[in-house]
Design brief:
With 66 residues, the protein is mainly α. It contains 2 helices and 2 strands. It has one domain. It is extended and about 45 Å long.
Length: 66
C-alpha cells in the first residue's frame, strides 16, 4: 500500500497540526557530536523560533531544571 490519510484528533492533517508533531529518539544517535545546548537551539529553530527567542527559552528551562 502506498497511499493513505493522516489524521490528528480526527481531522485530516493540516498546517495547524505541524506544531503538535515532534520526534523523541531513544538515543542521541542523530546528533552525537552536538552538545545539549546546541541540540536545543537547533530543534527550537526547527519549530520556528528565532535564535534570540530560542536562547531565551533555553536559558529559562535550563535554570528550572538545575
Amino acid at each position: 500500500m502506498e497511499e493513505g490519510q493522516i489524521e490528528i484528533f480526527g481531522e485530516p492533517l493540516q498546517e495547524k497540526h505541524i506544531g503538535m508533531i515532534g520526534y523523541l529518539p531513544e538515543e542521541r544517535g542523530l546528533y552525537k557530536k552536538m552538545k545539549v545546548g546546541e541540540q536545543l537551539l537547533y530543534l527550537a529553530q526547527l519549530k520556528g523560533l528565532s535564535r534570540k527567542q530560542a536562547l531565551e527559552r533555553i536559558k529559562v528551562w535550563l535554570e528550572n531544571l538545575k
